[in-house]
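Subject: Sanity check before I submit

Could someone independently write out the structure tokens for this chain? I want to compare against mine line by line before I put it in a report. The sequence has 587 residues.
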Amino acid sequence: MDNIAFRKRTCDPVVSALCEEFWEWRLSDSPEFASFCGEHKYDDRFDDVSEQNYISKKKSVEGFLARVKEIDPSPLNEESRLDLLLLKEELKTYLEGFPAKGYLFPINYMEGIHVDSYDIISYMKFEEKDDYEKYLKRLQDFPRRCKDVQTVLEKAVQSGITNHSVTMKGVIEQFESLKTDSEDVSRFLAPFKTRPSNVDEKTFQKFKEETKKVMTAKVIPASEKLKSYIQDVYMKHLRPNIGISTLPGGAEFYQKCLNFHLTQQMEPQDIHQIGLQEVERIKAAMATLIEAEGFDSKNFAEFLKNLQSRKEFFCNTPTELLDYIKHICYDKIRPELPRLFRDIPDSKMSILETPSFLTNSPVGFYKSGTYDGSRAGVYYMNTSKLKASPKYSLMALSLHEGEPGHHFQAVNTFAQEGLPGFRLYLEDMKYYSAPTRFSLNTANIEGWGLYSEALGEELGLYEDNFSMIGRYSFEIHRASRLVVDTGMHCMGWSREEAVKYMSANSALDEWFISNEIDRYITWPGQACAYKIGEMKIWDLRKKAEKELGDLFDIKDFHAWILKAGPVPLYIMDRLNDSFIQQTKQTC
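---
Independent answer below. Compare away.
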């Protein structure tokens, strides 16, 4: 990557070889993930998402785990022990989640081959003739990919394990959007918008015409067939209640989802109670600011109505919104980062508009780039609902998604020379399959994002009461997630109750809240990781501050977290203890 000082590691060759073998197997098993990681030798096919492949994958994982257990960690150095431990955790995560059969939910309004094809194509390389040949082969594999999905959905219907209607909203329309052959709109023709210099015009046009033929003969018919099955069969067998616990074995499934995303065991009732307590704490902080602006903090609805009626708080066009975000990220935040961080990576992220067919996506989200810098990290902004993105909330959002949040996490992880591939990249796709998948370390990743929002206070980036209200509104939103996620999936809450609770406890737009609730219904447990992870980071920081006293340096504390990359919370505990001990010894 450009202008990054790589930090070298010394690793045991046996551990390194096993990690490398596992990583190569991961990439070959998931060509779509390989494309995301910038590895293009598998660009000629889609993933195998059949149940049989998940079963076969389990056997391979068991084999890797047996080999991990054969290695004695005691003579290894600290870095190799950590690699071995994290590999073991990666393998155990898949095996522990396998009985839940999360792969039975391969279609929803955020994920599935009907929307993922856009990302998969964007991850591919189009520089040589061979790249276009691989692309044609991948498109020719599209019908098999659709067939796999339909077979899994048939098994889901047979098992009585299906999505709720909320999760399937707009799916049919998304399938319809695949049918266009307009070169300006079709995602399948996107690789032909610009001809690479290494491909002559005649060959380029030949590939374009062949792509159109494959679209007509294979891609569109396959997508139409899958759409028809979903519309005519699957939609008639959706679960009637929003809570995942209402499905056969649903309570256990939800607990496994929580374990997966939190990377620790916590009961839903305990999570719910933590959420209630955090909401009350943050409400008190918000009340002080509301009173300072001359409003009655007990009449939150009136204050919210006032906020939403003030034109100066909203952008008028998508371009204005994107420009405002760029100003915040590049001109406001980045210059202040050296106050809390060392070795600031000079790897600029892109800030782009969310694709038009993802209008129901979150208001903002991040997609990491690649280790070699061939693809930049992207902070996507949903510009379809301008009222959902008031200016006073955008500093907190940008600290979370950009720097020092997710983009900063990603590029700092890439800066660790010699880090095993499975530690460099998280499979930022197929969230529906949790807990039957490899780890996301959601509590670590999203906990850091939420913690980064709070760092805006230390950096003096919240310049008035309204931006602070926006910051607290985002935090109370994450605390409310603990309440509504457990409420819906464990305690029988309705969607309406969840929307009402969150509306009463944040300054967020009604569409924003409704869209968020639908996401929690779709991905059980994922939303709980943000607040739990953030609280863990604050606990670790307070412990380090207390034990080190004057020896504590915030830059060093942040450095060890970023150097470690995404890890489970209990391993963060160990690494923090090591940081404290090493600091005492060297000072």
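---
OP: Matches mine. For the report I'm noting this point. The longest strand covers residues 350-353.
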